[in-house]
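If your schedule permits, I should be very grateful for your opinion on a structural question. What I wish to show you is a protein chain and, alongside it, a tokenised description of its three-dimensional fold. Would you kindly read the sequence against the tokens and tell me how you understand this chain to fold? Here, with my thanks, is the record as I have it:

===
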Amino acid sequence: MGRLFWACAGFVLVMPALIATEFKPWILFEPDSLRISAQFVADFFPPKVEPAFLAMIARETWRTVAIATAGLALGMLIAIPLTIVS
């Protein structure tokens, strides 16, 4: 009984947001949307394996890892002193 209540309560709370944002998932299944989605997925095949493209992917992947590492280090530099102070 409790799960049903919370499911209904959640639905009642989320419903105004869905109406305000004009959420219409059935639009995804219209022929135009399906055609565009199929074209998007088809563009992934066959995968590109040219050396220049793979080098660019490796370079950008490394850049992403570097940015994430720098962000983590800066976050720890700020968090550790604040943790000790608190």
Notes: The chain is about 75% helix and 0% strand. The chain has a mean pLDDT of 94.
